[in-house]
Design a protein that fits this description.
single chain; 22 strands; alpha+beta; 356 residues; elongated; OB fold (Dihydrolipoamide Acetyltransferase, E2P); 5-stranded mixed β-barrel; 28% strand; 6-stranded antiparallel β-sheet; 3 domains; 7 helices
Length: 356
Amino acid sequence: MIPRARVAPAVALLAFVAVYIAPYPVRMPSAQPADSQPTTSAENPRGVLGIDPKTGQRYIKLSGHGSPTIDVACDGKRWTLPPLSRSEERAVYEVTRNVAEEMLNAVECRLFLAEQDVPMSRQQLWAAWAGGARGAHAPQVLVGQVIDVLDANTILVNLGDRAEAVRYIGIVAKEAAQPVRSVESKRSESVEANRQLVARQPIRLELDVQERDRDGRLLAYVYVADQMVNAELVRRGTAEVMTIPPNMRHRELFVTLEQEARDQKRGMWADPEEPTTPTSAGTGPRLSTKARPGVPPDGIWTCPATQPIKGNFTTTSGERCIYHVPDGEFYGATKPDRCYATADDAQQDGCRRSRR
């Protein structure tokens, strides 16, 4: 893990800061400490979006404005916000969690102050509110804009003061288990799925325990609005689970979505089984589907107790299948594609035994 000082400039966008909004002129301000107050007057009120670090309460603070309530409209929806506190000099207005989430996910929001109509950009809202306040162990959240899609698992992101390569946590995009098209074709499909979700989009990055990989890339759960891209790629079947400690926060979600993709035969799981007819004179007859030995796994990582041997068809060696016995070195790290009662069954199905 690299020192936190390396990401200090971007951490200025976290929940424990406030972002100013100014009716005239409208401009994109930088994040400032929550206790800082801008110069203001009754004719030109200034606003602050912020979060109370103790309670997690999101608020809008207006200096030089003391109306009993204010209105906010986003994408055609409108809410009246009550005050948390009010004086002649300033007022703090409550933004409930549900309203805040609607605002974060909106394309356009506006704040209505008497005769003034103040736009609030998505970048402002995310910079102030996206991280929320989830206590002392709250994850770090950065906001930025996607510059480029580097591959199926990695994007280039503008974080304001710098550009960073960001690698998705917990997943890896692969070709189909039993491809009917070329590996390059499958990789292109995976990259295209990633591009459809994130290209040129404003995003927020949720970091985990380990902030960078050995190549120096940021590791993150990537969100476009309220959708986690890591999870969506697994759900579509264009990526599979590959969680590496200590970054395990959303592992259960990924495993559930991968099982759903397998059950629904999406993406890489959609290809049919190997042909039942011989592929050459030397291969000999294959078993029909009904007579095929083994059974499907009963979970992402597990086989039935009566058929514990794991057959893995997603090999990197180019072989059809490798099987792993319970006392093998890689047994616990192997996700089975088929399970067998005996080694003979696995071999009959075209698998060879793992060498370790």
